[in-house]
Structures are given as structure tokens and as C-alpha cells.
Amino acid sequence: MRAAPGRDYSARMRSSPLRSVPRVDLLIGLAIIALGTLEAFTDAKDYGAAQNPELWWVGQALVTGVLVWYRRRAPVAVFILMILAQYAWHRQGNESCPVWQLAALLIVFHTIGAHLPFKPGGTWALVGILVFDSGAVDHRFLPFQEVVYLTVMFGSAYATGLALRGYLLRAHRMSERAARLEVERERRAAEAVAAERNRIARELHDVVAHSVSMMVMQAGVLRRRMGVAQADGPSPEAEMLSGIEQAGREAVEELRIMLGALRMPQDEALPQPGLDMVPNLISTVGSSGLRVTLETEGERLRLAPGLDLSAYRIVQEALTNAVKYAGDADARIRIAYHPDRLELEITDNGGGAGPALSTGNGLIGMRERAELFGGSLDAGPLPRGGYRVRATLPISQGVPMSEATN
User: Would you state the pLDDT for residue 39?
Assistant: First the structure.
């Protein structure tokens, strides 16, 4: 039966305890109650009762059915109570055991094998068999044939439960193994995709970048020749060649950036944020206990998309490590724009970021991003405590944002 999670499930449990009973156990318990009631009104004398009907049998059947309902939740308690119920049954002068009681006993022996580990389950099953074989329940000496019968019957019921438990454990292990194999398959598929992306990136860089570089070089040579030939200043053709040369250089730069992007995880191939999203990043860590301030120096430049993304990722990774390891501390992000370079510095005055960051993948990833654009990154603890991550990224053909928006 399905149940809503959380508080709704608890409320339903309090309102109706039977909702937690598996449907098969509920049906078995109802069948035992019905069969016991039927025998109480029809066959009571055949089992040694004084009269037909024997109404107290109905109560005994009801108790037995309810015990079967909760056999999975408390198998040992139900097992003990069932033996005590049999003891009470025989103490009333009944010599034999009716069908519904025998069925209930077999079910609880089966439950001991199915829902308990081998050692405690086997111990309880052995104790139960010895109790019945010794005549402690019947208050009489049992003949050898009956002892063998009870031993085989109850032992077989326990063995079926033990076999079911073994089957379920094997099925669970196979399910876990299948899940691990699926994860491994997905990992290998991702590695194959990454390898193919790297191959494509190398081909693009080797073929296209070489051809564009040759075009840029030839356009530059032709422009310089035309500039020498024109004494009265550059001609329109020379200006066009200069534009071609500039566009070619930018194309080669973008190809190099694309090579790095293709080497990144697949989710980073999509449009990504830049340094303009750093304030939003700071707001997301406001509830972590880390107090972050942002300082910007120089006139903001329009960066190439790949460079802008990598700068943002460096800030994001450094800030994430500060949140994880610096604890309740102060952090400062400094972004400095220079005509030829971009400087990033993330510092905190906490006490734990250094060792964890220096041995993890975060610092490696940040350094790879910086080196992808010909930059550098260094990180380490500060003399007075805390940690600092500083990156320098070269900028080619930087354009101020004020001019770029015009």
C-alpha cells in the first residue's frame, strides 16, 4: 500500500494502524479469523470441545489473525506470543490443533527464517521446535512419530523462509551490481564523448587556426607594402586589410578559447555567466555565515566570452572553498582591470581552507583555466591566518565597456 511521506504518513498511521500492514498479511489474517470462526461454529466437538459452537474460539482466532498481521514488524515477539497462545489453547483441555492454528504456526516459523539473520533466526526456530517436541505446550509426553512430524513440519517452514531470505539478498546484491554497472557505463560513455570532443578541438585548432593564421600573415604583409607605397597616408584598401588582419587575430583567439571550452565538461558548453554575475554569486552564499565584500578596480573591459567565463569560474570555485572551509569568517573579492591583464584575488581570514583546497581538484581546475589563457594562478595560506587565491589573466584587444555599449 502506498503512503504519503513525512507528516501525512504519520497522521495516517495514527488514524489507522492497519494501513501499515502489507495487503497479503492482512488477507492471511482475515482468512485465519474467518476459518477459526467457522470451525468454532461447526467443528468444535471434533477437536475435543464440550459443545458446538465454542464462542471463545472466536477470540482465539481473532488474536491469532492480528498476530499474523504484525509478523513482519516484530517477528520474534509474534513468534513468542503464538507459542504462548498454543499453550493457552491446550490448557483449556483441547487435545488437537485445528487447521487455522497450524497454518498460523507454520507462517510464523517461516517469518523467523525470512526476516531474521541466520544465527538469531536459527536459534529461535530451534527453541520453538524443542518447545513443541518436549511436550511443554501440550503438557504430555509426545510419541517419537509425532516428534519427527513436528520437527519436519516446523523445520521445513523455517527452511522456506531462509531460502526466501537468501533469494531476496541475492536479488538485492544483483540490483546493486546492476546500478554500479550502469554508473560505470555512463562514466565510460562520458569519457568517450570527452575524448571525441578533444579530437574535434585538436582538428579545429590544427586545420582552421593554421589557415586563418596564414591569411592574417598575408594580409599584414600586403597592408605594410601598401602603406609604404602610399606616401600621403593609408588608403581605404590598407584600412580594409587592417580590419581583415584584426578580425583574423580575433578569430584565432576565439578558436583557442573554443578549444578550451571543448575540453571542459559538457554542461559548460552552454552559455555561461561572466564577471557581471559575481554579485549574484555573493548573494547566494549570504546564509552560509561567510561575509563577502566585492572590490572592483579600473575601468571594466569587455572580455572574450571564454575568458569571462573562466574568470567567473575561478571566483566561484575560490568562494565555494571559502564557504566550505573558512567557516564564520570575512572574505574579500578583488577584480582589477588593467589594459593588458585581469587580476583576481579572493582572500579570507578563516582557518581551514588552505590544506583542503591545496589537495583537491578545485585548485587544479582553477589553475587549468588560468593557464588556458596564458595566465597564472597561485594559492596559499596567509601569514596572519586565512587563505588567498590570486589569478592573473592576460587580455588581448581589451575594449572598455563604455565604448563597447556605444
Answer: 76
Among the listed ranges 69-73, 136-140, 179-183, 276-280, which one has the minimum average pLDDT value?
136-140
Torsional class of 188: left (φ above 0), alpha (ψ -120 to 50), beta (otherwise): alpha
How far apart CA 321 and CA 327 sit, in angstroms, is 10
Q: What is the DSSP string of 118-133?
A: HHHHHHHHHHHHHHHH
Beta-carbon count within 10 A of 179 CB: 10
Strand partners, 378: 390
- Closest to 322 in 3D by CA, of 280, 296, 297, 291: 291
Residue 381: all three cell numbers together? 595560506
pLDDT single digits (tens) 61-86: 888 888 888 888 888 988 888 888 88
CB atoms closer than 10 angstroms to residue 132: 21
d(C-alpha 30, C-alpha 24), whole Å: 10
Q: Strands, DSSP E only, in 71-131?
A: none
Helix (H, G, I), strand (E, B) or coil at 235: coil
State residue 405's pLDDT score.
Answer: 46
Grid-cell match 593564421, residue found: 213
Q: What is the pLDDT of residue 309?
A: 83
The 10 Å CB-count burial string (b at 16+, else e) for 35-68 is bbbebbeebbeebebeeebbeebbebbebbbbbb
pTM reported for the whole predicted model? 0.43
Q: What are the C-alpha distances in Å from 64 to residues 37, 83, 97?
A: 12, 11, 13
Q: What is the CA radius of gyration of the chain?
A: 40
pLDDT attached to residue 53: 66
**In Å, what is the CA distance from 12 to each residue of 65, 66, 188?**
22, 19, 45
Sequence-ordered list of residues with C-beta below 8 angstroms from that of 267, at least 6 positions apart, any chain: none
Q: What is the DSSP letter of 192?
A: H
The SS3 of residue 110 is: helix
Q: So what's the pLDDT on residue 358?
A: 42
Three-state DSSP at 79 gives helix
